[in-house]
Amino acid sequence: MACCVPSTPRGAQPLASPKARRVSPPDRCISLPSGTFAMGTDKPVFRIDGEAPSRPAAVEAFAIDPFAVTNAWFAAFVSETGYLTEAERWGWSFVFFSFLPDGGDGLERPPGAEWWRKVDGATWRQPEGPDSSIVERGDHPVVHVSWKDAAAFAGWAGGRLPTEAEWEYAAQGGQAGARYPWGNAEPGDEGPFPCNIWQGRFPDRNGGRDGFMGTAPVDAFAPNPFGIHQMAGNVWEWCAENFRVRSIRRDLRERDAVARARGHKVMKGGSYLCHASYCHRYRIAARTGSPPDSTTGHAGFRVVFDVG
Prior knowledge:
Elements: E1 30-32, E2 35-39, E3 55-59, E4 62-64, H1 71-81, H2 86-90, E5 92-96, E6 116-120, H3 147-156, H4 164-172, E7 200-201, E8 205-206, E9 236-242, H5 250-262, E10 265-268, E11 288-290, E12 299-300, E13 304-306
Parallel strand pairs: 9-12
Antiparallel strand pairs: 1-4, 2-3, 4-13, 5-6, 7-8, 9-10, 10-11
C-alpha cells in the first residue's frame, strides 16, 4: 500500500493485446527535444518512495499528448477493438467512498485504505458503479484502467506509456528545479488552484474549492510552459517501467522487495484525492507504485510517441 492507491492484486490471466495501429501522433501532441535534466529531489517528502536523490537523467526526443487519455478516446479504442478492461473482466473496481450512497457502508474495504470500496460493476464506463455513467464526461480522463489496459491502448494508438524520466522531463516544462508543473507555489485550501486536488481534511471533508470533487476535464487547468495540461492532480498516470527503490537503507530495501514481488509499476502525478497533509504526491519528483492489474477511480494515463 502506498498513499491513496489501494494495491490489491487480482492475479489476472494474461490479456489479449489488440492489434497496434501504425499512426502519426495526434496533431495536438507536443514534440520535446532530447536533453539532460535533474530528475528526483534532494528534499524528499516521502523518502520511502525513492524520490531522492536528485540526479542527472537523459531523454531522447519524443512527442507527448498534452492531455490524459479521455473517456471519449478510450471509447473509440473499445469500439474498434472490442477490448475489455480488467475491471470489466473481473466485475469490480475501487471507488472512493464519498461518491457512493451511504458511503458504501457494508462494502469491502482494502486494508490500510479504508476510504476505498470494492464496487461491483464499477468500470471506465460506470465510474461510480452501475447507476453512474460517462455520458457527460467525455472530456474527463478515463479511470478504472490498469497498467495493462493503458499499455494496450497506447499500442493501439501507435504510441507507448512514458518512462518515468520522460514524464518528469515533460512535467518540469523546462523549469529547472521546479517543484510543480507550474513552478514552486504551493496550492492551498484557499487558493491558488493550479490543479485538481483535495481541499480540506482528507478523507472526511473536501471543500471542492477548485471546482471539482472528482475528476475534471483534461483541459480544465492551465498548461505548464511546454503546453502540457494537468501533470499534477486529477488522476494518477501510469508509466512504462517497474517501480524500484534503490538504497542501502533497510526500510527502503524492504519497500523495493515488496514492489518487486508484486510487479508494481510506476505511477506519477497524484490525483484529485491528494492533499499536502496526507498525500503530497502531486509534486513532480513524487512517485508511487501499484500492481499492474489494479484499477481505481483516480488512475489514468497519457501517451507518448517516438519521433525521428
